[in-house]
Amino acid sequence: MSDLKGQVALITGAGGTLGSSHARAIAARGAHVVIHDIIADAADAVVDDVVRLGGSASPMVCDVTDRQAVKSCVDAVTAEHGAVFILNNNAGITGNNALIKDIDEDFFDRMFDIHVKGAFLVTQEIVDGMKAAGGGRIVNTISGCAHSGAVSGSHYNGAKGAIVGLTRALASEFTPFGITVNAIAPGVTPSGMTRVRLGEEGLAARAKQLVSDRLPTPEEITTGVMFFLAEEAAIVTGRVLNMQQPRKAEVI
User: Does 247 reside within a domain?
Assistant: First the structure.
């Protein structure tokens, strides 16, 4: 796997299970990792963990839906550490698996604001630095729900689907500048957010639906992110990597 020494990586929503796993792996390859979260204590805890393991990290606390807050934070990161070369738009919230008639309009707006607008704003603020540096890697976190047509959770599924469109459009726009843009669909993982939504029985039931007969670990999902960051993957852009395979594929 490629050496990331001297590079600056920004992971949004890195206080959670997946984001923190990505942070540890990227820092282990030598990059300085900026740990973003809207909760300061969550960001600080991951920074402490990365540093304890011998890596370099710093916190970034802001609301990714607030343009001015994002701009101020990115400006501060750039001034102290240099341009961001790696961006993982990972910030998100879980849905409530409601049918469309039961989805509150304010929650629908919040879902799209955090997932879609957040990725848009952060990308918009870092891309000039990537262009000036001659390249970069952007990995967006989506969900298999963007493709599955699940019966419930249309607000969540729709937001993740919008990021797929954003990923592919930006891949075409940024290719001339040496910037790749891809997305990873982790599927169900035993993260804190998913445990709250599904419970232990729900997680076990999801595992039985997979070819692997088990849920992936966060570290296994991180291998997908690391693939997109590898020097050997410089030609790979506009792709979505689904990390889980269901036992029964849909018949079209």
Answer: no
